[in-house]
Amino acid sequence: MKIISHDFPENQYYKEATKKKGIVLHHTVSGDSVSGDIEWWKSTAERVATPIIIARDGGIHQIYSSQYWAHHLGIKQEHFQKFNLPALNTQRNKEFIGVELDSWGGLTVKNDRFYSASGQEIKKENVVYYEKGFRGYKYFEKYTTAQLDSLCELLEYWGDRYAIPLDYKGDVMFEYNKRALGGESGIWAHVSFRPDKSDVHPQKELIEMLKSLA
């Protein structure tokens, strides 16, 4: 893998090596600007970040080492209470590695044109449609082939380095569920932990890549 390293302030994450049991897939809800994502994280005091952002060209941008941690899940007490589980947001952030795919995520449509939450127009060929909708949206910006190829390499690397099982969870991965909140090891999505998120969406190519890992 070709890694692009960034100088990220140590006070914006926790330089504490923790045992890893899983990986959580996110998307940024932003355009193709890794530097913009990083600057946003730097502007907050809550130490919100992930060790890796994958740009739309497939570039793997390392923000800090995956052995360390920062807040990336934001699970609220009521999310755990729904399943009668103890509220362990900090623990889940420590033991699950987050990875971000640069993407605008959910889109709105007007006059057959597609727009991000910030009003950025997205080309039609870069849009995926879900007939039944997903987390409040019917249209999403697609993850690129280059992104998914890089993500595949990264997942295989982390799976080997941290002994994380890479088997595909099935449809439950794209549902808010007890297994993820309870800390089951493996690959999950942000939507697995929270009902109010829409990352990542169940793009066919993403699912095919995840199934190929087993």
From TrEMBL:
Domain N-acetylmuramoyl-L-alanine amidase: 21-190
A Pfam family matched in the record: Amidase_2
Coiled coil regions, renumbered to chain: none
UniProt cross-references to InterPro entries, sorted A to Z: Amidase/PGRP_sf, Amidase_domain
Descriptive protein name: N-acetylmuramoyl-L-alanine amidase
